[in-house]
Amino acid sequence: MQDLENGVWHNKPTRFDHSDGSLHVVTDEQTDFWRETHYGFTRDNGHFLGVETADGFTAQLRVRATFEHLYDQAGLMVRIDERNWLKAGLEFSDGQALLGSVLTVDRSDWATGPFAGNPMDFWMRVSLADGVLRLQASQDGKHWPLVRLCPFPRSARYRVGPMCCTPERAGLSVRFSDWSLTPHLGKPLHDLG
After folding, report:
1. CATH number reported for the structural domain that contains residue 145 in this entry
2. Which of 127, 128, 79 is CA-nearest to residue 104?
3. Range of the domain at 96
4. With helix as H, strand as E and coil as C, how does the chain read?
5. Which residues are registered as beta bridge partners of 9?
6. Residue 192 lies in a domain
7. Structurally, how many domains does the chain consist of?
8. What is the pLDDT of residues 52-110, one digit of tens each?
C-alpha cells in the first residue's frame, strides 16, 4: 500500500498536516476543478494529493468535513492530466450536501444525487481497470453501493488520492483517513462488500 505521505500535491494548500494516520487540509480561497461545460470556464486549482499507480487498482478513503457553503466539496480524485480526470465525493449544493461525481474527458459533466448517510463522515472507493471506472460510496466503510460506472481513458500511469476545494470561499476543514490503495478488487458489479 502506498502511503499518502508519498503523494504529490497538485495545488498544495497553504494549510495541511499529516498526523495520526490522517491528512488534515484547510482549503484555500476559490479553488476548483472544472472544464467548460455550462459555466464556460476552466479551473484547475483545487487541492489534490495524488499517489501514482498503474492500471488495475482500487483506492478508498474516509472523509470528514462540515459542508456549509455553495460548492464546498471533498472526496477522491483519479487524474491523468488537466483534461482527463474524475472527482467524486460530497458537494454542498441546493442547501444540502449531495453525493456527486464529475467526469472530465476534455469537458466536465456533473452527476449528483442525495446521500442517505451522515454528510460529515463518509467513505469513497474507486476501482479502475482496462478503461472501466467503478465509483462507490459508503456510510460505514463496509457496505458500498454503486455511484457510477463509466469508461475512463486508458493510461500507463494514474494519480489517485484525496481532493477538496471551495469555489466560493476558503476555509473548509477536511480530515482524510483510512486510506488504502490495492490491486483492483475484481468484485462482481452487484457485490456491495
Report:
1. 2.60.120.200
2. 79
3. 4-16+26-183
4. CCCHHHCEEECCCCEEEEECCEEEEECCCCCCEEECCCCCCEEECCEEEEEEECCCEEEEEEEEECCCCCCCEEEEEEEEECCEEEEEEEEEECCEEEEEEEEEECEECCEEECCCCCCCEEEEEEEEECCEEEEEEECCCCCCCEEEEEECCCCCCEEEEEEEECCCCCCCEEEEEEEEEEECCCCCCCCCC
5. 49
6. no
7. 1
8. 999 999 999 999 999 999 999 999 999 999 999 999 999 999 888 999 999 999 999 99
Give CA–CA dist 59/113, Å, rounded: 22
State the pLDDT at residue 33.
97
* pLDDT value, residue 173: 98
pLDDT value of residue 158: 98
Q: Do residues 78 and 158 touch, judged by C-beta distance below 8 A?
A: yes
Q: What pLDDT is recorded for position 2? A: 62
Mean pLDDT of 137-160: 97
